[in-house]
Predict the structure.
Amino acid sequence: MTARTQLSNLTDTYDALPYPGHPFPQSHPGRMAAQAVLRGLAPPAVETARVLELGCGDGGNLVPMALGLPRATFLGIDRNEAALVRARELAAALELTNIEFRGGDLESLERPGRFDYVVAHGLYSWIAPRAREDLLAVAHGALTQDGLLYLSYNTKPGGHLRQVVRELMQFAAREATDADEIVARARHAVKLVARAQQPGDVYGAFLDDYLTRVLERSDAHLFHDDLETFNDAVYVTEIVDHAARHGLRFLAEADLHESSMGNLPPGTADALDELEPRTEVEQEQALDFLRLRMYRQTLFTLDGAEQPQIPDPRNVDALHAYASLRPSDPHATLHDESLVEFADRHGARLSTDHPAVKLALAQLAGAWPGPVRITDLTEASDDANALRQAVLGGHAAGLVALTTHAPRIATAPGDKPRASPLARAQAAAGADEVTNLKHERIPVAEDMGKGLIALLDGTRDREALRRAMRDGGAGAVPGIAASLARLADLGLLVGEQR
């Protein structure tokens, strides 16, 4: 008996081992809309949009959206009632009135209405083939004329590598009878294979990095992402064709940096050209072969919607930008044509000698972690066109994030700092991750950090926070100011109303 059969025998794998929900930044309507704007489209206004998530789980992705977009409306649909109970409880605890959760199966789902943004994260590859047809049919029927669909899925050719490890784990867990035992046997098998490889083994070199990543996953992620009954990778050309049969058209990869229009290394770009792709989708497929890609997040529109163009620097004026790039030398001169190196908080670097670009990057850094309206940059610039090119280039390189929505984020802690109600609730519950105001997952390893976040309701100054932390058993609490500055840098503190 295979692990696939064993999982099939479980009444509901998500009851056997609950899957915690998380925010996925590229699925946020503001990030989706930005990709459409770059291509000359006019997507629905995010602030008043109707948003549907299919396979919403416990609301970990949808609830933060509803909290940050109070005038928009949200509907989450999932077949697992236990997850929906948790989602409703979280929404009620946050006093959200703009979100609803419904139970439903794709194969028998009644039409949920019309929506400007439809999200299906972690669904397509992990459901039965018949349900994939239903997923795309439901998405097509739900989208408004200018709406956008976000779809994530496992891809080939990297999916072949994933399948090798999946089949190894299935073999090791073939006699297991419950979720915990399946996960334990699967983990042990991966460790055995990793240890068995000798220096220079082709198998080991091929699998080493992926085996490490598998072992770093939580039990729930390993169980559901790798060992679910269905886990089928597809070529991007296949999913584009499949979507087309349901009246959906490829728009773009949800992250420009991850696409063939991203900032590719010269060798990759040259190889891509030599493969002679005739269309953008063929470019994406060729890139997947060059990168052995395993996973994609792709945006689709209705087939009858306006025809998208390639990303145009002139379109960035309608967007907001985030970037943490700062001069490596804090004394660098920005107003002349001297070459200045900028580095972001993750160590990525770029250099420029253009004064307008240097000044704009400095302005973005000064607003970090909050966003800046790009028109504020271009209207004050001596060379707006160069600035637009730099913003789009930085976005293609993964150094500048673009969105149509600008949340209120504090650039520094105020006298009485406040974290979002969601982050406070997550920290108070002891979660190892909280959701920031940019729809990102932020690890919080220490109990002290969780305790501090839970206290940031905007009623306490620094001395009151120290007292509350001591009363909570933290003992002496040095470095409150540094801790608050760190939380601000991570986008966890709410800014003032504009």
The two ends are 61 Å apart (CA to CA). Residues 179-196 form the longest helix (18 residues). The mean pLDDT is 91. The domain at 7-156+233-302 is CATH 3.40.50.150 (Rossmann fold).
